[in-house]
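step 3/5: co-fold with flavin-adenine dinucleotide
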Amino acid sequence: MTDPIDNIVVLGAGYAGLACAFAFAAEQPDRRVTLVDAREEFSERIRLHQLATGQTLPRRSLTELCAGTSVRFVRARVDGIDRSARSVRTSAGELSYDRLVVALGSAGTADIPGVLEHAHAIDVESRALRLAGALDRLGPGAEVAIIGAGTTGIELSAEIAERRSDLVVTLVARGALGHDLLSAGGVARLRRSFARLGVRVVEDFDAAAIESRQVIGRAGVLPFDVCVYTGGFAPSPLVAELGLPVDNTGRLLVDAYGRAPQDRAIYGIGDAAVPADWRGASPLMSCRLALPRGVNAAANLAAECRGDALRPWRIFDAGRSLSLGRHDGLVQLHAGDGRIRNASFGGVVAAWLKEQICRYTVATLLRARNRARKAVRSLPSGPTYATLEGA
Ligand SMILES: Cc1cc2nc3c(=O)[nH]c(=O)nc-3n(C[C@H](O)[C@H](O)[C@H](O)COP(=O)(O)OP(=O)(O)OC[C@H]3O[C@@H](n4cnc5c(N)ncnc54)[C@H](O)[C@@H]3O)c2cc1C
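step 4/5: write tokens
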């Protein structure tokens, strides 16, 4: 039985979804690609700690990004996926698909009582902006507690401390600072940077609940004026509704080609999915994995269209880079499979490198978009339905 692939729907226009939609459209401009997102603008999530501290980020309309390509952008909330009918329920109506790419990303977890009521977050733009407002209203000497010392908590603490040296910034770690993220040398660098910035670190503090002005830990309480919870990310709840196997964080388990083995019409990329055969350490939700996986899924969708063999996804995980404010940073090198090497560097070089990485992610998306535009222009029949509709 033939399985035509004329209609591809990509859910989520973050790093993974945009990379996938544009890379596919650049290769197969005469096929229908529909990109769905609840937002009208691309959210540069890896800079949300900057937004939360009053810095402005460029605005990029998804409608404008897709214009001139064969990607039709639909601004809509995805409400459900019916795999048996191969259709997606959205606030703009039903969308049928031949192949569905699930790139719905993640959101912050609220896994202790009081997070939703009493803590801020920077997992999505609207919440980062709300935090910016709350920080603005604080006077000198006010206490800011950041609960969760993963990469997001570390970057946010440094950013706040750099911009608001009049505030008391405390980063709360469940265990030892940086123990599962950094080498011993990396931790030492981080401690020096925090000391310079005036970030106070409270370690081995297992937060059990957040109340209106204090965090309750098993070993005491920590008062605050503003609290930010950066305890972790969970994938979109729509992934669970697919009824397909997921990992212990709820991410869709996909094969080396990016597909759900039990339903090969479904691809999963970005924070919403994880390769089932991952052998390395900590397959973190990250932009540095979301982008290449989006491109790989696009290549495999195009290969399916041509009837070619699919290409497995291989990652070389060289390291992790953290901003520590705008003038300092920390680069932790990894073995190619994600294991932490005893090699790190910091300072202005690391800050510069992190900034280049942030620029590179957007530049990569824009280059893929430009290729998709060029592909439409080179079609013998001229622009397709999507560009004519002004999608
Ligand atoms: C402050 C911060 C700093 C970070 N720094 C780094 C870093 O330095 N390096 C790194 O590698 N990673 C970093 N990350 C993680 C990185 O941002 C994510 O891993 C990355 O955004 C994942 O890309 P994605 O495309 O899977 O999802 P997203 O970028 O989250 O995109 C998902 C898209 O899906 C849309 N969507 C979700 N649900 C629905 C729905 N129901 N209906 C319609 N649309 C929907 C959203 O609007 C969004 O546009 C950081 C994250 C944060 C919050």
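step 5/5: annotate
The pocket of flavin-adenine dinucleotide is lined by residues 12-17, 36-39, 43, 45-46, 48-49, 77-78, 103-106, 122-123, 152, 236, 238, 270-272, 285-288, 290 (CB under 6 Å).
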